[in-house]
Input
Amino acid sequence: MHEYYATGGVLYPAKSQFYKTVVSTMETIAYKDFAAIKGVEKDTVENFFKLLQLVAISMPMELSYSSIGKVLQRNKVWVMRFLADVEKTEAIKRVYACGEGTKPFRKEAKYYLPYPYRAALCESMGRQPNIGAQREEFFVNHVECCYVKTGSVQTADFKAGGKVFEVGGPGKEEKGGCDHIVVDGLDTTGNKVPLFLFGLLY
Output
């Protein structure tokens, strides 16, 4: 799994220039695909990279329209439109709160990247990618889901197919209201399911 976190998701050879090639791909998306969207301005294209970098160094739950707007120096309405355009390029993935049961304490999305964007961007900034974010990222990139953390009570992470999943490391334990614990390893005891198996669903 750790090898996939670092170099999975694309067919480039995992050699010394791997991350440089990945970043070059993102540049192509920004300056050709994204720039082709009607009404996108030059500084908006530059903000495309700033957004990806921000997502790469942040935990998925940390970001909001306000925090993104502060970094990009834009208002909330602009950020909402900008995110919708960026999402069309599939350079980011937003996972929203489940709309049933207890009212979510926030309606905004959690933010993720395709593999291996987080690792490549963090490498380019001299940062270490957060392993927890990478585990969640693997899950949401292979499973259509919503997130189910509500109120001040920390429940499981995601809901998909009527089941609730908690994603974590080998020693992850259930926090409550969880059907399956998705672990980064090979443990299948109790209700644990190895994370890599969800990659077979894609």
